[in-house]
Specification:
70% helix, 4 helices, membrane, transmembrane helix, mainly alpha, 106 residues
């Protein structure tokens, strides 16, 4: 968590420095190319950082599902014995077809 805060503070300081540099370049009459490069950096760097953070969240491997914890939560919520209408219909023999088993349903 500390690393995120340090990186966020560094990014904020970089943007402030770029803003101050843009003002200084504009006031001193620096060449147009320098000013445009600083303004471009003020826009482009945050976009790239946001995209990198987004891709990190999207591509991060998910944690394996702990089935025991899910069952414990379901029991605590009172849903452990809940059955679907499909399960009840199968018990009565309704809708049974040749070669149909419980693993084939969506």
């Amino acid at each position: 968590m500390k690393l995120k805060r340090i990186l966020a503070l560094t990014g904020a300081l970089l943007l402030v420095a770029l803003f101050v540099l843009a003002i200084i370049l504009a006031v001193t009459g620096a060449p147009k190319n320098y000013l445009m490069a600083v303004i471009f950096s003020m826009v482009f760097i945050p976009i790239i950082m946001f995209a990198m953070g987004l891709m990190t969240r999207v591509l991060k491997p998910s944690e394996p599902v702990d089935m025991e914890a899910l069952k414990a939560e379901a029991e605590k919520a009172g849903m452990a014995g809940t059955r679907t209408a499909h399960d009840k219909a199968e018990d009565k023999g309704v809708g049974k077809t040749k070669g149909c088993d419980k693993t084939s349903r969506p």
